Amino acid sequence: MTTATQPNVEQLTEEKVQFGGLDGRRRLTKEQYEGLQQEFDALRDEIRADLGQADVDYMKNIIRIQRYLEVAGRTLIHFSFTPVPFMLGVAALSVSKIMDNMEIGHNVMHGQFDWANDPKMHSKNFEWDTACDAGSWKRTHNFEHHTFTNIIGKDRDYGYAVLRLSDETPWTPMRSFQTVYFALLSIFFQWGVALHELESERLRDGTFDLDEKKPYLKGLFRKGAKQVFKDYIFFPALAGPFFWKVMLGNAMANLGRNLWASAIIFCGHFTEQAQAFTEEECENETKGEWYYRQLLGSSNLSGSKLLHVMSGHLSYQIEHHLFPDIPANRYEEMGPKVEEICAKYGLPYNTGPFWHQYGTVLKRVWKYSFPTGGQERS
């Protein structure tokens, strides 16, 4: 791996700035940004050169487990006549939906396995079990979010256009209710993601262009209708007189998936330590500065292998933002090396247990519902 010039920690400490109500962040010199780029490029190339059949086999095994869980979940929900097998069915179906969305869909649609030349794992072909159309998600997430991560006014994933998370976002009286918006977004997360490309804020400011959005709206209605039909009409209808039981089980599985997926994603982006940036400070940014922004705008989760798999390895959100096209099952291997590079440059590596990180998300959402969000509240 390329070795960069050792950073001057005293200089980094002196160059702290206040921003958005968050703690001051360290600045690097031009040479240090270049060194940071060289080290992360070298790490990416090292892992990419090592990709092979073991990575393909890993994903095929995950897909196989997800399908078994879906069959088991739907069977138990359909044929259960007592609460225990019914709840086991709900749990199995919910886990299958989580795996489909997180460990499989999210990662496959990032193109992490395009190199394998397997049509079932190619980003162009994959469609997932959620209301959001794959094409829409790739436009808003792969391009907008991963290019403009945490840049206020450019990254619409930062707060999903309904949450105020920085003083750089103007406060309005409606922001006082954002804890309610947060709860609703968590409960109906698949629909929030599906509606993301609608750009609802443009409806409010009068710049919405219906003709421009027609292709997206067609995809939204087509995919949304398919999901509603599958979970709330087709499978319940197969149960005949037990229609409502199956529909309830499917709704509960979707709720479980929504709450888990939203919590994991919020923990990766909205913790108190995750920083935001202005468009002005990111103008003409170099690749080293882009890496720097990914580091400071992301948060990890510490935990077991099961947590990593169930989160789609977004428990390694820092590594994912740095290397979105590297198969996520390799992030656990990359994590200690990324942390070592961060320590070398005096940069934070924000990680912690799930409940701690989620607690800071809740605290941040609450804090910025007030006009003085970034200031200390007595």
TrEMBL record:
The lineage of its organism: Bacteria, Pseudomonadati, Pseudomonadota, Gammaproteobacteria, Pseudomonadales. Pfam families: FA_desaturase (PF00487). This is Acyl-CoA desaturase. GO terms for cellular component: membrane. CDD domains: Delta6-FADS-like. One of its GO terms (biological process) is lipid metabolic process. GO terms for molecular function: oxidoreductase activity, acting on paired donors, with oxidation of a pair of donors resulting in the reduction of molecular oxygen to two molecules of water. It comes from the Bacteria. InterPro entries: FA_desaturase_dom, Fatty_acid_desaturase. Coiled coil: none annotated. Residues 91-351 form the Fatty acid desaturase domain. It comes from Ketobacter alkanivorans.
